[in-house]
Amino acid sequence: TSALLYHVLAGAGASPSALLGGELVREQTNGVIGTSRLLIAEADESDGSFVRLRPDIAVITSIDPDINVTADSYEECGYSRERALHKVTALFHRFADNVGRRLIACMDHPNVRRCLTDWKAPTTTYGLHSSADLRAVQVTHRDYRVSAEVFLRGERLGDLQVPLPGVHNLQ
């Protein structure tokens, strides 16, 4: 999500700076110094440090425990998926409380959906879900692309083509 956002803003001429977890292919780095005041910072819940951030705008794509979801054998070691989800959700609530202007949240993720009413910041939802503010419909896959019609609160904005395969690239 962060890398895609960087490419969209850079392609639009916004010249953002970026601190990302993965390497940007064209730039061959995970850090870029742009000329604008925009900074895209990829942050996750793996060590909890993201709660120290104070973003103006934040995108929350999912809320899940950062551990192998198939590892039921961790139960023997005291790991509880429910307890981990509770702790991670609490971290996301703290993070959301730090957002200054707007949260952008994926309506398709059930744990994000459950948290929406608890967050104080104005929130815009997106995704394929029928009640998302920014919604992709009529999704098609062709030639390693995913395409959709995009609506904002019921008003058609136009067509979107993402040059990457998979519906997850719309979420």
> In terms of per-residue confidence, which ranges show pLDDT below 50 for 5 or more consecutive residues?
none
- Binned, the helix content reads 10-25%
Distance between the termini: 9 Å
Structural class: alpha/beta
* Average of the residue pLDDT scores: 88
Q: Rounded to an integer, what's the Rg over CA atoms?
A: 17 Å
Q: What general outline do the C-alpha atoms trace?
A: globular
Strand order of the largest sheet: 4-5-6-7-8-9
Strand content: 25-35%
Largest sheet: 6 strands, mixed
List keywords for this structure.
3-stranded mixed sheet, 3 helices
Give the gist of this structure.
With 171 residues, the chain is α/β, with parallel strands linked by helices. The chain has helices at 2-11, 81-97, 110-115, and strands at residues 17-24, 29-32, 39-41, 57-60, 102-106, 123-127, 134-142, 145-152, 155-162.
Describe the structure.
The chain is built from 3 helices and 9 strands. The chain is an alpha/beta fold and 171 residues long. It is globular and about 45 Å long. The N and C termini lie close together (9 Å). The mean pLDDT is 88.
